[in-house]
Specification:
GO terms for molecular function: ubiquitin protein ligase activity; zinc ion binding. By secondary structure, the chain is mainly α. The protein contains 21 helices and 3 strands. Helix content is about 60%, strand content about 0%. A 3-stranded antiparallel sheet has the order 2-1-3.
Length: about 550
C-alpha cells in the first residue's frame, strides 16, 4: 500500500514538472515540445494505472469486511486482557502480545480506514472505546507488567487517546474509582520512571484552558504545512475539566502528595531547561565557525525535545497553581513557601535567558534550523506568563503580596523581563548603541488571534503592580552585611538555625536541602529540627544574660 502510494506521488510530481516545462518551452523548439508531450503522455498513463491500482488495493485491503475483522480482534483481545486481569498476580504471565495487538488494532481502525468506513458505525463502538480506555488507564502503570517496551506502548497509547474528543470522553466514562487511580498514577513523583509521557498526558488534559493556550499550531508555524495533520499533537484542544478536578482533589489530599509531585516537576524543569541552554550554546558555536560545519540532526532533535519538555512542564505548573493555588500560597502548609521560592527562582531564570536583548536564544531562533522548528519565544513566554498572572493578579490581596515579595526577593528578578512581554525595550547601558530600527520586537500584543484582550489587560496589570512593588521594595530595603547573608546562596538573610549543631542558613536553602538529605551542610550532623533565627533577638538575649 505504501509502495504504490509513493509511486503515485512520484509520478504526480513528474507529471507536474513536465507540464510546467511545456508551458515555459518556446513554440519554435518543436523537437523539445514533442519530447515533452511524449513524456507527459507516458507519465499520465502510468499515473492513471497506479491510481486505479491504489484504489483497488484500498478497496480490497481496507474494506468493510476487513474493518469488522480487526474490530472483532480488538474486542477479543480486550476480553482476554480483562479476564487475565481478574486472575490477580498471574496477570504478570499473560503474553504481552494481547496488549500490543489491542493497541495496534485500535490504531488501525482509527488511522487506516477512510471516511467511507467510519468507526462510529461499528456495533457497540462506544462500549468498546470505554473498555479500551479502562484497559489503558488501569495498566499503563500496572506493576505486574514488567516489559519496558509494552509499558511505553501503553503510555503512548493513553497519551494519544486523550488528544481526541471521542476517545477522551471514553476515558471520562470509565468508573470514577478507575479514573482517580489513573490520575493518582500520573501524579506519582517523576523520578525513576518515564515521566515525559505522563507529563504530556497531564498537559493534554489542560490544553485549551491555559493562558494563550488555545492554539492547534504555533503562530510561527502556520505558514508551513504539517507532515501529518492527523498527529495527536495537531488536534484541536479538548481539555477535561472532570479529570482536572480529580487532579485537584488528589493534590489536596495528604501532606505529601503535592510536595513530592511538585518537587519532581521543578527538578525536571530545571534539568530540561538547563540541558536546552547548554545545547543551544553548542549549536551557536558551531554556526559561528568559519569552516562549513553541520550540526548533528540528532543533537537538534534532542535540543527541541528539551525545549518542548520545558514548555510542557511549565504548563503543568500553570495547571496546578490554577486548580490548587493554596499549595504555593497558603503558608500555613510546611512546604508552601519553599515551593513558591523554587518556582520563582526557575521562572526568573527562564525569563532572563529568553528575554535578554540579542541573547543566545534570540540568535538560535533566528537561524531557523531544520529540527528546531518548535523553538520560539511564544510557547515558553506565554507559559511563564500564565503562571505569573495566576500568582500576581488573581486571588486575594494577601496571597498576591506573598507571591510578589518572593518574586522580588529572588536575586535573579529583573523588571525589564516582564516589560519585554509587552514589547518594552530594555534600558540602554552606558556606552551601548541603539538596536537597529527595523528589528522586530516580541510582544504579546502582536498575538491577538491567540491571546484575548482580557489576558493582555491582566499582563498590563501585572507589569504595573510589579513596577510599583519593586520601586517600593528598593526604597525600603536596608543594606545587609555579608556575615548576615546565607552562606549557601548569598541571596537571602540568615533566617534558620539547625538543631543540635547550631549552623545557620536561610529557610529556602535548608527546606530544599531537607527534601532529599537530613545531614547538615557543614558538619554532616543529623538535623533533628530547624528553628527560626533572628539576629536582633539573639543579640539582645545575649546582652541581657551578660
Amino acid at each position: 500500500m505504501v509502495g504504490v502510494s509513493d509511486d503515485v506521488n512520484e509520478y504526480a510530481m513528474a507529471l507536474r514538472d513536465t507540464e510546467d516545462k511545456l508551458r515555459r518551452c518556446p513554440k519554435r523548439r518543436k523537437d523539445i515540445l514533442a519530447e515533452l508531450t511524449k513524456s507527459q503522455k507516458v507519465f499520465s498513463e502510468k499515473l492513471d494505472h497506479l491510481s486505479r491500482r491504489l484504489a483497488w488495493v484500498h478497496a480490497t485491503v481496507y474494506s468493510q469486511e476487513k474493518m469488522l475483522d480487526i474490530y472483532w480482534l480488538l474486542r477479543v483481545c480486550l476480553r482476554t486482557i480483562e479476564h487475565g486481569d481478574r486472575t490477580g498476580s498471574l496477570f504478570a504471565f499473560m503474553p504481552e502480545f494481547y496488549l500490543s495487538v489491542a493497541i495496534n488494532s485500535y490504531s488501525a481502525l482509527k488511522n487506516y480506514f477512510g471516511p467511507v468506513h467510519s468507526m462510529e458505525e461499528l456495533p457497540g463502538y462506544e462500549e468498546t472505546l470505554t473498555r479500551l480506555a479502562a484497559t489503558l488507564a488501569k495498566h499503563f502503570a500496572d506493576p505486574r507488567i514488567v516489559g519496558t517496551d509494552i509499558r511505553d506502548s501503553l503510555m503512548q497509547a493513553l497519551a494519544s487517546y486523550v488528544c481526541y474528543p471521542h476517545s477522551l470522553r471514553a476515558v471520562e466514562r470509565i468508573p470514577e474509582e478507575q479514573r482517580i487511580a489513573m490520575v493518582r498514577n500520573l501524579l506519582a513523583p517523576y523520578e525513576q520512571r518515564p515521566w515525559a509521557q505522563t507529563n504530556w498526558i497531564l498537559v493534554r488534559l489542560w490544553r485549551g484552558c491555559g493562558f494563550g493556550y488555545r492554539y492547534t499550531r504555533l503562530p510561527h508555524l502556520l505558514k508551513t504545512k504539517p507532515e501529518d495533520a492527523n498527529l495527536p499533537s495537531l488536534q484541536k484542544p479538548c481539555p477535561s475539566t472532570l479529570l482536572q478536578q480529580h487532579m485537584a482533589d488528589l493534590l489536596r489530599q495528604g501532606p505529601d502528595v503535592a510536595p513530592s509531585f511538585l518537587n519532581s516537576v521543578l527538578n525536571q524543569l530545571n534539568w530540561a531547561f538547563s540541558e536546552f541552554i547548554g545545547m543551544i550554546q553548542e549549536i551557536q558555536q558551531a554556526a559561528e565557525r568559519l569552516e562549513r560545519n553541520f550540526v548533528d540532526s540528532r543533537q537538534l532533535k534532542v535540543c527541541a525535545t528539551c525545549f518542548d519538555l520545558s514548555v510542557s512542564l511549565l504548563r503543568v505548573l500553570e495547571m496546578t497553581i490554577t486548580l490548587v493555588p493554596e499549595i504555593f500560597l497558603d503558608w500555613s502548609r510546611p512546604t508552601s513557601e519553599m515551593l513558591l521560592r523554587r518556582l520563582a527562582q526557575l521562572l526568573n531564570q527562564v525569563l532572563n535567558r529568553v528575554t535578554a536583548e540579542r541573547n543566545l536564544f534570540d540568535r538560535v531562533v533566528t537561524l531557523r534550523l531544520p529540527g528546531l522548528e518548535s523553538v520560539d519565544h511564544y510557547p515558553i513566554l506565554v507559559a511563564v506568563t500564565g503562571i505569573l498572572v495566576r500568582l500576581l493578579v488573581h486571588g486575594p490581596a494577601s496571597e498576591t503580596e506573598q507571591a510578589t515579595s518572593v518574586l522580588l526577593a529572588d536575586p535573579c528578578f529583573q523588571l525589564r523581563s516582564i516589560g519585554y512581554l509587552l514589547g518594552q525595550p530594555e534600558p540602554l547601558a552606558p556606552g551601548t548603541t541603539l538596536p537597529a530600527p527595523d528589528r522586530k520586537r516580541f510582544s504579546l500584543q502582536s498575538y491577538t488571534d491567540y491571546i484575548s484582550a482580557e489576558e493582555l489587560a491582566q499582563v498590563e496589570q501585572m507589569l504595573a503592580h510589579l513596577t510599583a512593588a519593586s520601586a517600593q521594595a528598593a526604597a525600603a530595603s536596608l543594606p545587609t552585611s555579608e556575615e548576615d547573608l546565607c552562606p549557601i546562596c548569598y541571596a537571602h538573610p540568615i533566617s534558620a538555625v539547625f538543631q543540635p549543631c547550631g549552623h545557620k542558613s536561610c529557610k529556602a536553602c535548608i527546606n530544599q536541602h531537607l527534601m532529599n538529605n537530613k545531614d547538615c551542610f557543614f558538619c554532616k550532623a543529623t538535623i533533628v529540627s530547624v528553628e527560626d533565627w533572628d539576629k536582633a533577638a539573639t543579640t539582645s538575649a545575649t546582652s541581657s544574660a551578660a
